[in-house]
């Protein structure tokens, strides 16, 4: 897939006490869920959109940077009443071992799955800096992908990531 070998099954589980709610099209939180939006953006293909691709690549080698953008439609009604979110993680399929690190950061700008590229977030709307790398594009680091082996790997969100998940469920931020 890519030289650093990170690929996503397009799902994000949110740990809720002794329960896990998984956000993945066709899987959860219910079989009819279709709220995942994702694409990749590439420094060596600045004007190309990858929103229709079924695999996403994350890489940072000499062939250019490859970043993935993920968005999940999350509703407070997906959780049982009185739930307390205590953790969150993202699971990725690693196809090539890497020493990393790669940061998972909050994307602050809205973007379109079928329009976003390295240069633009949607038609007529540029990123503050190419690759969504500007301060107005990218917020707090939510998790770190470190030294990984080949296979399905789960990466825990840090305190900022868990707090953001809580805010999503409360409706405080989108």
Quick structural gist:
The chain is mainly beta and 174 residues long. It has one helix spanning 159-170, and strands at residues 6-7, 11-16, 19-24, 36-42, 59-61, 64-72, 85-94, 102-107, 120-122, 125-126, 138-145, 151-156.
Tell me roughly what share of residues is in helical segments. under 10%
Counted beta strands: 12
Radius of gyration: 16 Å
- Strand composition percent: 35-45%
**Sheet bearing the most strands, described?**
5 strands, antiparallel
- Whole-number average pLDDT? 85
Number of helices, where a helix is a run of at least 4 consecutive DSSP H or I residues: 1
Low-pLDDT residue intervals, each spanning 5 or more residues: none
- What structural class results from the helix and strand content? mainly beta
The 3D shape can be described as globular
First and last CA, distance: 31 Å
What's the helix-strand series? EEEEEEEEEEEEH
